[in-house]
Amino acid sequence: MLAEENRLDLFSFTSAEIAALLLSLKVACWCTLVIAIPGVAIAWLLARKDFLGKTLLDSLVHLPLVLPPVVPGFILLLLLGNQGFLGKWLHALFGITVAFTWVGAVIASALMALPLMVRSTRLAISLVDVRLEDAAKTLGAQPFWIFLTITLPLAFPGILTGLILAFSRSLGEFGATITFVGNIEGETRTLPLAIYTYTQIPGGDLPAMRLVTLSILIALAALYCGDLLERKMQKRLGVDHGRD
Amino acid sequence: MFKNISIGISSFLLVSMSLFAHADDKVTVFAAASLTNVITELGAQYEKERSVKVVNSFAASSALAKQIENGAPADVFISADSKWMNYLQDKNLIDVSSRINLLGNRLVLIAPKGRSFKVDFKKNFDFAKSFDGKLCTGDIDAVPVGIYAKQSFNNLGWWDDIKTRIVGSQDVRAALAFVERGECSAGVVYETDAKVSDKVEIVGVFPDDTHDAIVYPLAILTKTSAINPLAQTFVNYLASPKAAEIFSKYGFTVLSK
Amino acid sequence: MAVIDIDLKFERPAFKLNVKFSSDHLATGLFGPSGSGKSTLLSLLAGLIRPQNGHFVLDGIPLIDCAQGIHVPAHQRRIGMVFQESRLFPHLSVQANLAYGLKLLAEKNQQFTMQKIVDLLEIGDLLAQKPDQLSGGQKQRVALGRALLTSPRLLLLDEPLAALDMRLRDQILPFLRRVKEETKIPMLYVSHSIDETLFLTQQLAIIEAGEIVASGDFHAVMHDRHALGLALSLGLDNLLHATLIESHALLGYGLARCGKHMLVIPHGSHKLGDEIAIAFSSSNVALSTQRLHHVTIQNQLQGMVTSIDIIDYRTLVSIDVGFKLIAEVSAKSIEALGLAVGSELYCLVKTQAIRSYALS
Prior knowledge:
The complex is a heterotrimer of chains A (244), B (257) and C (360). By secondary structure, chain A is mainly alpha-helical. In chain A, 76% of the residues lie in helices and 0% in strands. Chain A is built from 11 helices and no strands. Chain A has helices at 3-7, 15-48, 54-66, 70-80, 85-94, 102-126, 130-138, 143-171, 175-181, 191-200, 205-237. The longest helix of chain A has 34 residues, at 15-48. Chain A is globular and about 70 Å long. The termini of chain A are far apart. With 257 residues, chain B is an alpha/beta fold. Chain B is built from 10 helices and 11 strands. In chain B, the strands form 2 sheets. Chain B has a 6-stranded mixed sheet. In chain B, strands 7-6-8-5-9 form a 5-stranded mixed sheet, with helices on both faces. In chain B, α3 (61-69) packs parallel to α4. Helices cover 24% and strands 37% of the residues of chain C. Chain C has 2 domains: 4-234, 3-Layer(aba) Sandwich (Rossmann fold); 238-358, CATH 2.40.50.100. In chain C, the strands form 4 sheets. A 6-stranded mixed sheet of chain C has the order 7-8-9-3-10-11, sandwiched between helices. In chain C, strands 2-1-4-5-6 form a 5-stranded antiparallel sheet, covered by helices on one side. With 360 residues, chain C is an alpha+beta fold. Classes of the chains: A mainly alpha (244), B alpha/beta (257), C alpha+beta (360). The interface between A and C is medium-sized, with 23 and 27 residues.
């Protein structure tokens, strides 16, 4: 068993391992794309507006953060699985299935990463001086234009952090993914799932170790780049939060 | 206040550790997932009759073999195929004299209840076209039922057309659950699993000559220290006619020693 | 000329605003102590907060009418605002800040070009810089330019010079006056400094505890009994109308005729023949029973005591010198000199204690 995986050393990868890596990157990129706009929108609502049900929205958004990941995964399965409440309807109307597909993996990641994105973005938006937005109003700018030209640019470093956190979270997503879309090689077997699979098979320790090392390197790279980017943005914005 | 808290915590830890101290009056059984219902029933019976606690752990045979290799404290191992028992034997982790082939089983094709479809287990049958959607079974590289399934598919010449639609799960019961829920339109599990569920129906039985004989070897594990003396008595119980009746009830073939 | 008609009620925990005011002047100074509601009023006019009740009509267009459910949103009011903290956008260059509102303005509404405003405020060499590289005075000029470039129908200035030191303030005030005179945009200038306000306009509205207590011409307002406490606190309790007769730059003085008296005042920027207001506080008026000869005080006005009042523990003596003057002295000195209603005496006013303001 796993003869091919054990023939290679720590730095060479089998095609199955590379497939897992590429799938992880694909899912993480799509996940980040999918939650970017809703994440910013929800964060803005929570940061700037008061409305009935605000606490409820806040709690719902944070649920995936505090629940064990299998719970959201299971809920997704009930909702969007082939027999699920929404899944059946999607399939009947559009012929779309998300169970056991990488799209489902993206949905699982997105759900788990959303709270991180919203938290970071909300903080960034709330740090943007409302008085600047007021000034923009007196200059004739409509609310959405103010958001695009003032709030968004000034909050961008925090938004970027949120996106990177979301990306990293997706790379590490396991519980919800395996519960919702299973562990199908090439389709939903992302890096964490691949590592898990290898640890369940006798003789899978070496390939597991390879993938573990790879995961750590990717995560470090993402965090490092994120930090660099964020600092560059801060400088460009010339924002100083109450220094004088 | 902190002093009181730390005293409380230490006492709790000591007490809970003592709960684990009595390793000697129980038998730990690691068994293939397909044996979940039958071994649980037999274990409960045994406990009632002999007052010896039976602790069970059910998972795919590959996963169990890995755990045993890593030092899991199991006394008895029942695998769903010979491959994983051989693996442990090669690593000198079993008492070879205790190894017996306990049970047999049959491989079946299932569908969610009410969604059966027609299948001819012949080489020229277009299996891929006979149903829509995914087929669930154990992971085809490691989990016994998946390995058997792949063998059958290869032998029937259906493999290439069906391989992209296979969903591999971590054990046969997980695959069964997917089919029960209707997430998969078809599944390959053991006959005994299909019998235990009332949410699936059997579409057909894979002919025995399309896959290796399904054999459940059993052995006592040597572990790092001496063999648990209670293990042999439990194994004897499993091989007894009374147990054979219960195994048959579930649909297993009882193999003569 | 803006015709502003305001009648607004606004309430917050521990604060109530009830302002009734109208004006058709080019510039009006809104004056009052801290916490009196000046900034709140401006925010209401700009549309940044909503009143509970009332209306606000600008040039005949109702921008707020609570009874009819009208509340034109801030970005549609064409009311510009300059704040105490410049509120320049930190991520944009000076040029981009200036252009921010201009870009949103339809061409037909654009009264000023970028170049014109940049020249007016002399900010040409700042254009490429970012706000954090500018001094306080420069920032305010840019903020002013940014607001002007939206060709507002009304310009609200909320203590724009309060955060600057005196030197900077003196530098920018002339720019403000220039803006008023060359752009002809109606302004509502809020300040707690009367000198600053008077540099721009004589039309005042006095606000205290959320209400307008007096409004109109500076002279009339200061003599309004409602503004007495304020006048006293500002040292404007003696406020006279005068004409500049002579001006001597080298010796640093000027001569102003006030009624039948000629007063020596500090040299200022007024031109000969200008109508000016002269102010000095009552505590700077000393009393003497005879004219003094060997003393530096040149202003010695003869008159008669009309009343002696005690207001807030202060002893105020009112004297008729042809017009009314108020002197604040100690009760002891009144007793020592034996002063009473009808006493004839001289009011002594130090030249250096006199402030003068142009009357337009």
